[in-house]
Write a structure and sequence with these properties.
GO terms for molecular function: transferase activity. The chain is α+β, with helices and mostly antiparallel strands and 340 residues long. The protein has helices at 6-16, 64-74, 119-137, 155-170, 176-184, 230-238, 256-259, 264-275, 283-307, 315-319, 322-335; strands spanning 23-28, 37-42, 45-51, 84-88, 98-102, 196-198, 207-209, 216-219, 226-228. The protein folds into two domains: 6-102, Phosphorylase Kinase, domain 1 (2-Layer Sandwich); 119-335, Alpha-Beta Complex (Aminoglycoside 3'-phosphotransferase, Chain: A, domain 2). It is built from eleven helices and nine strands. The model has no long low-confidence stretch (mean pLDDT 90).
Length: 340
């Protein structure tokens, strides 16, 4: 059983999805604490459905309409995203706004050390991930109709303000490290390095790789996508080199040479080479901000757990990371020059 009316969905698909075949079954994917995601089986193949959570939501969160618009814009220019199928803004169909996209088959890796991959091949998987980030940042947002997808002005200043508000809206505890980040971040925002389409949650478990190689077949989970500072986007990926291993994609403490994984310096050099940059200044500031943003996301999950509206069985486990994440964020701020 799913948590919505499958018969109502099937009727909508017959009327709205070109060449829709009868719906056979619906299977909810594990994980996905933000926008619940389902695999739809039909007699003609598979689709993926992403919907907003049920219940009261924070302002601007869970914007699946934006996800659909984004993938509809970049799929035609060849960036690897699932083919968009249809958007439903009528909440009476399943109880929430949702969209459908094609089901992309392949491999997803949850562990940043890639234990499923031979050591000699792991560097290629990381290289492909970095190259796709660079490719995304090279797309002209105006050329694909996304010139108004983000607000003008200093992206990072707005992001600090936004995530502070998001954190405050769902705050349940007083965490000293978070309070220090809230005070320090807005006073030290770097000058914006450029403007591009950014994913906002670019990491290895949001990629689908080919079954037989390191090619990236699809980048998933575009909820946080916008127009903004590409360095913030890459820094979110690079941050996993300093994240503890309680985060599955974290690489802190891993013997990278023994694991066959590029070092942080090598990852930065590859991104710089692909984007024509000489260096990435203020990287640890971006690390501090991105961890702060992750704290805000996890805090939102914790509030939904308390309210009984969390969408994943793993939500309770996720909120246990809240305090350790806050400490990592403040440690990165200290490296970037923050003082007590």
């Amino acid at each position: 059983m799913t948590d919505f009316d499958e018969a109502s969905l099937a009727r909508w698909m017959q009327g709205m999805v070109p060449s829709a075949a009868p719906l056979r079954s619906v299977e909810k994917f594990a994980g996905g604490q933000s926008n619940p995601t389902y695999r739809l089986h039909t007699t003609a193949g598979g689709y993926v459905l992403r919907r907003k959570p049920f219940g009261k939501l924070l302002p601007s969160a869970h914007a699946v309409e934006r996800e659909f618009r984004l993938i509809s814009a970049i799929h035609p220019v060849g960036f690897p995203v699932p083919r968009p199928v249809a958007l439903c803004e009528d909440e009476t169909v399943i109880g929430a706004v949702f969209y459908l996209m094609e089901m992309v088959e392949g491999r997803t890796f949850w562990n940043g050390t890639l234990p499923e991959i031979a050591k000699a091949d792991r560097r290629a998987f990381y290289g492909a991930m970095i190259d796709k980030a660079a490719a995304l940042h090279s797309i002209d947002p105006y050329a694909v109709g996304l010139g108004d997808f983000g607000r003008p002005g200093n992206y990072m200043q707005r992001q600090v303000e936004r995530w502070t508000k998001q954190y405050r809206a769902s705050q349940t505890d007083d965490i000293p490290e978070v309070e220090k980040l809230i005070e320090w971040l807005p006073c030290t925002v770097p000058e914006q390095a450029g403007v591009s389409i950014i994913h906002g949650d670019y990491r290895i478990d949001n990629l689908i790789y080919a079954q037989d190689g390191p090619q990236v077949r699809a980048v998933l989970d575009w909820e946080l996508a916008t127009i903004g500072d590409p360095l913030a986007d890459f820094a979110y990926l690079a941050m996993h080199w300093v994240m503890p291993r309680d985060n599955p994609a974290g690489l802190s403490g891993v013997d990278l040479a023994e694991a066959g994984i590029p070092t942080l310096d090598e990852a930065v050099a590859r991104y710089c080479g692909a984007t024509g940059r000489d260096s990435l200044p203020d990287l640890h500031w971006y690390f501090a901000f991105n961890v702060f943003r992750l704290v805000g996301i996890v805090q939102g999950i914790k509030k939904r757990v308390i309210d009984g509206n969390a969408s994943s069985s793993q939500a309770t486990e996720a909120v246990e990371r809240l305090l350790p994440l806050a400490r990592v964020g403040w440690a990165q701020a200290r490296i970037a020059g923050a003082t007590e």
